[in-house]
Design brief:
31 helices; two-stranded parallel ribbon; single chain; 62% helix; mainly alpha; two-stranded antiparallel ribbon; 605 residues
């Protein structure tokens, strides 16, 4: 259903419709009327003009044609003509289609839809189907701000239940709509009446959902279990029961239900998604999420879209978001931002920090003094590399590479974001960088462009300047994963460059490159042993260095290790040790609150 950008105001469209009508040009009158109706669907003057067009044309429906890309205004106008011609059920079908196209518009807020006598003229089963179409078109539940445009459908449901008080399908469908619109008590009442009139699987499911929305878990589970008794082969209900149990913390019972479903059909998508999510919630092992990602990749034709993987990864370090940087330089940057920036503020460091952090501090106008060098020297690569991104003059780091092209900078500004649904989704999103040259991708790592002039860019630049730099570096490294993908992994340019970056100077780029490798392991099972080995070696090196001096990237690399598919137990235990040590020596502060705000405001669905 198309909806072109309007060039004229509704009043202007209405005036043109009247002029065309007066001149007998009905097609043009209808076109302008549809344009006005699309923007002001409840305006009385629009409906008066529509009535005049209907009278002049004899109710010609062809003035408002339907097609593959029907204009929403024409669809709604046709709905009103159908109702006027004594075919209100067909008209309601079209109004529901408009609602599915734009749920926030009050398409049904007209007298004929909310008239009490309409419900008596409609077959109750047809009304139930219409209400079910509305439910399928809107979120569950509908946010409070979006309920008003849908209230005419609830009014229709009330009138229909009054006219047909013992129709079980109508009662259940009305309950489903009431629940979505926040009328939970009414939903329970209607669903209960429907089940009393005619016990059925669908009726019990509606009742179970209503009880669940009302916070009555025991009653909800009882209804859903009765639904299973009606139809033991509907495995979606097993998943609903498991989800309801999990919501109350009863994970073992929930998993027993998913196991029952999987015994009947090991590939049933709802049960597979729910089972992996619950197993992850129970023990925190990322292997469950990796298995779920594999299932999603291998079964692209699931019965419907699932959010279990994204739900589990949301707000978790590296699984769903960039991990905040640590270290004295970053702390100074955040203090400077919190005080609206103090150009020239002095920062005294006992040893050089990651070069990306030092560059961010200099860009923010901080006066940085490095008084010493810790050993092992953080300015030296951890292994020999041909991919040298930084050079040092004392404690000052400078890029060795030229700035990236304008096109590369613009592309990463459009993509870079601190959150993603899960690693495979981040990989897919980074395909927009696939055609960039290697030099541009490396240049982005040391010459991050300014954040975009968007809400996200302003918050990132103003609240945590380090975070924008990290976002650019993460997405540039994800872009490297798409570089020359025709090359076999083991000898590929993308692997060689990323591994060299991982073992280069201790920097935020180390984290970004390692995340890219971990992401490669998520999307390609054949590279998992190789990536797990790289991660294990790098984390062991971090632990060794941490015995001699602080390692600002240690916590982040530990989280990356725990996000790595097929990681060995010893490395996982080392990662937990590093995290436990960091937790014991730090306290929550403003950073945690800032990070929660950022990921809440700008989370990608």
């Amino acid at each position: 259903m198309s909806e072109d950008d309007p060039a004229l105001s509704p009043a202007e469209e209405l005036a043109l419709a009247r002029l065309a009508l007066d001149s007998g040009d009905l097609p043009h009158a209808a076109a302008h009327l549809a344009a006005a109706l699309a923007r002001t669907p409840t305006l009385p003057e629009v409906h008066e003009t529509l009535a005049r067009i209907a009278a002049a044309s004899g109710g010609d429906l062809d003035l408002f044609p339907l097609g593959q890309r029907a204009f929403v205004g024409a669809v709604v106008a046709r709905a009103h003509l159908l109702a006027a011609a004594g075919r209100p059920a067909e008209g309601l079908d079209l109004l529901v289609a408009a609602t599915a196209h734009a749920p926030g518009t009050d398409w049904a807020g007209v007298p004929w839809v909310t008239a009490p006598e309409l419900a008596g003229r409609l077959d109750p089963e047809r009304t139930a189907r219409i209400l079910m179409q509305v439910c399928a078109a809107v979120p569950d539940p509908v946010p409070r701000a979006g309920r008003a445009p849908l209230s005419p459908y609830l009014t229709l449901a009330r009138h229909a239940v009054d006219a047909h008080p013992r129709h079980p399908l109508l009662l259940g469908a009305a309950s489903a709509l009431a629940r979505r619109l926040g009328e939970v008590a009414l939903a329970v009442t209607w669903a209960s009446r429907g089940v009393r009139e005619e016990p059925s699987k669908l009726g019990e499911v509606w009742l179970g959902y209503a009880h669940r929305s009302a916070g009555r878990t025991r009653e909800a589970l009882a209804a859903l279990e009765r639904a299973v008794a009606h139809d033991p082969d509907d495995l979606a209900v097993y998943a609903d029961i498991a989800g309801t149990l999990a919501d109350t913390g009863r994970l073992d019972e929930a998993l027993a239900w998913t196991d029952r479903a999987l015994e009947r059909d090991p590939t049933f998508d709802c049960a597979v998604h729910t089972a992996h999510r619950l197993r992850f919630l129970r023990d925190g092992d990322v292997a469950h999420l990796v298995a779920l990602a594999d299932f999603v990749r291998d079964h692209p034709d699931d019965s419907h879209e699932h959010g279990d993987l994204a739900e589990c990864c949301r707000s978790r370090p590296w699984l769903g978001q960039v991990t905040p940087a640590g270290g004295a330089m970053v702390d100074a940057l955040r203090r400077s931002s919190a005080s609206d920036g103090t150009p020239g503020a002095a920062v005294r460091l006992a040893a050089p920090e990651p070069p990306s952090a030092m560059r961010a501090g200099a860009a923010a106008g901080l006066d940085v003094e490095v008084t010493g060098v810790a050993e092992p020297d953080p300015r030296e690569p951890r292994r020999a590399t041909t991919c040298q991104l930084w050079r040092y003059e004392g404690g000052t780091a400078a890029p060795t590479l030229p700035a990236p092209s304008v096109d590369a900078a613009q592309r990463v500004r459009q993509l870079a974001h601190p959150a993603w649904p899960h690693p495979p989704a981040a990989y897919d999103a980074a395909v927009g960088l696939a055609t960039l040259e290697l030099g541009d991708l490396l240049g982005l790592l040391v010459h991050p462009p300014e954040p975009p002039d968007t809400a996200l860019g302003r918050v990132l630049g103003g609240q945590d300047p380090a975070l924008w730099v990290r976002c650019v570096q993460v997405w540039a490294c994800l872009g490297l994963l798409h570089h020359r993908t025709d090359e076999p992994w083991a000898s590929s340019t993308r692997r060689r460059v990323l591994v060299e970056l991982v073992w280069g100077v201790e920097d935020w780029i180390t984290e970004a490159a390692l995340f890219a490798l971990v992401t490669a392991a998520w999307v390609d099972p054949s590279v998992r042993p190789d990536v797990a080995a790289v991660v294990a070696e790098r984390l062991a090196d971090v632990a060794e260095v941490a015995r001699e001096r602080p390692v600002p990237i240690a916590v982040s690399l530990a989280y990356l290790a725990l996000a790595t598919p097929a990681l060995d137990d010893a490395t996982a235990a080392l990662a937990h040790t590093l995290l436990d040590t960091a937790t014991a020596t730090s306290a929550p502060g403003p950073l945690r609150r800032l990070w929660h705000r950022l990921t809440t405001l700008f989370h990608r669905p």
